[in-house]
Amino acid sequence: MTQLEAAKSQPTEEIRTVAESEGLDVEVIRRRVASGKIVIPANKNRKTRTVGIGKGLRTKVNASIGTSTDIADIDMEVEKAKVAEMCGADTLMDLSVGGDIAKIRAAVMDAVSLPVGTVPLYEAFALSIEKYGSAVDMPEELLWEVIERQCEEGVSFMAIHCGINRMTIERLKRQNYRYGGLVSKGGSYLTAWMLHNGKENPLYEKFDRVVDILKRYDVVLSLGNGFRAGAIHDSTDRVQIQELIINCELAEIGRNMGCQTMVEGPGHIPIDEIETNVILEKRMSGEAPFYMLGPVTTDIAPGYDHITSAIGAALSSAYGTDFICYVTPSEHLGLPFPEDVREGVMVARVAAYVGDMIKLKNRQRDKEMSKARRDLDWQRQFRLAVDPERAREVKGRRGDGDERSCTMCGKFCASDILAGMFEKYLEGSDKK
Ligand code: SF4
Question: With a 6 A CB cut-off, is 415 part of the ligand 1 pocket?
Answer without folding.
Answer: yes
